[in-house]
Design brief:
By secondary structure, the protein is of the alpha/beta class. It contains nine helices and 19 strands. Helix content is 20%, strand content 30%. The chain is globular and about 65 Å long. The structure holds flavin-adenine dinucleotide (FAD) and FE2/S2 (inorganic) cluster.
């Protein structure tokens, strides 16, 4: 039987039991003990904490996110570290009152929709065996089955539907050539009626519903997914009083999706919601009669042109890490403070091998 150890989490003084084959973050989140985290696979460094006592195996922590000297100094990434004795850790826990803590649980899902919605992009809808509680913006982990002699792995995809639909969850997934979860599974044989194993909810990229500032939401590619959950929750469920402006970035119209859906929402909530789809590699001339419906250039250029200042707004950025970094700089250049910017970087296994640590300016 796998041995179990006691993890003491300071400064909370909470104790949780953790198996030797389980990460410390997983044990804490399943016990309802909130620790800061973002990617949950050892790439972003958000969860970095101190080992005050005991031994851990650092597992698959990226050497960029947890450098050798930090390991020697007694740091760990709870999202990859497994205990080898009883362990005491000290984490930088800033409890955010607007995030409800839903303990992580395992669920079984059935694929009820798998549709191509844009180039190399699918909408996946799964029906769960029971309801799940989550905050708009959070994500699930999917177990990608073992295949061709390779072991099962976890992959993370953001929930695009609102928390008020707790049994039928929508996801937007972009194919990554050579990727185990996308090329090798979702785009490589997954089909209607298949059973999937998922766990969650994870993440702290969450719509702050206790706020009413103008929210600038910027999504590149499938980075739209958690923003769609937030926007639907804000508007359809009346969860947010402030204005929302969505910037959806894509190279050309063939990469954009849900355009009609957001146009229709903007028509329904004209005082609260503005929709700005942006094309970086297509010109107004190429678009033709519908040209005025789009912004042109990088999404960051369109934001910069639209606003003299964003002072007093809140930012939500999501998608490929380079786009998130560029949008962060643009928002800060428009006088948004780092503390008012929330980001979700879609790191993958390639990023873990080559770097990918987030800007230390942004803790959320
Ligand atoms: C919090 C979070 C939420 C996310 N939400 C979404 C979402 O809603 N939608 C979405 O489309 N994506 C999302 N992602 C990204 C998603 O989790 C996957 O990373 C992505 O789908 C690719 O997975 P994959 O298994 O197909 O590719 P991976 O197996 O991770 O491979 C990715 C690329 O890296 C290369 N690679 C793999 N291993 C190595 C290695 N050791 N060294 C060098 N290169 C390597 C592969 O060849 C491939 O090109 C999210 C990521 C995070 C962190
Ligand atoms: S959450 Fe641990 S490194 Fe990203």
């Amino acid at each position: 039987m796998t041995q179990t150890h006691t993890i003491t989490v300071e400064p909370l003084g909470r104790e949780v039991e953790c198996r030797e084959d389980q990460t410390i973050l997983d044990a804490c989140l399943r016990s309802g003990v909130w620790l800061p985290h973002s990617c949950t696979h050892g790439t972003c460094a958000t969860c970095k904490a101190d080992v005050l006592d005991g031994d851990v195996d650092h597992g698959a922590a990226s050497t960029f996110a947890l450098m050798d000297y930090e390991r020697d100094e007694g740091k760990l990434l709870p999202c990859t570290a497994c205990p080898r004795s009883d362990v005491t850790i000290e984490a930088d826990i800033d409890v955010d009152e607007s995030i409800e803590v839903f303990p992580v649980q395992d669920y079984t899902g059935t694929v009820i929709e798998l549709t191509e919605i844009a180039r190399d992009t699918v909408r996946l809808v799964i029906g769960l065996d029971r309801e799940i509680g989550f905050n708009a913006g959070q994500y699930l982990k999917f177990q990608v089955p073992a295949r061709d002699g390779l072991p099962a792995v976890d992959r993370t995809w953001s929930i695009a539907s609102p928390p008020t639909e707790p049994r039928e969850l929508e996801f937007h997934i972009r194919n990554v050539p050579g990727g185990r979860g996308t090329d090798g599974w979702v785009f490589g044989g997954l089909t209607l009626g298949d059973t999937v194993s998922v766990s969650g909810p994870y993440g702290r990229f969450v719509l702050k519903t206790d706020d009413d500032r103008h929210a600038i939401l910027v999504g590149g590619g499938t980075g739209l997914a958690p923003l769609k959950s937030m926007i639907r929750h804000a508007l359809e469920d009346g969860a947010y009083d402030g204005r929302l402006t969505l910037y959806q970035g894509a190279r050309s119209r063939e990469w954009l999706y849900d355009v009609e859906f957001f146009r229709s929402l903007a028509g329904e909530f004209p005082d609260q919601f503005t929709y700005r789809p942006c094309l970086s590699e297509e010109t107004a001339g190429e678009v033709g009669s519908d040209a005025s419906a789009y912004g042109y250039g990088m999404v960051t250029d369109v934001i910069a042109t639209d606003h003299a200042t964003l002072n007093g707004c809140a930012g939500y950025l999501c998608g490929p890490p380079p786009m998130v970094d560029a949008a962060l700089k643009t928002l800060m250049g428009k006088r948004l403070f780092p503390r008012d910017i929330h980001r979700e970087d879609f790191f993958n296994e390639g990023d873990k091998a080559t770097g990918g640590v987030r800007s230390p300016l942004i803790k959320r």
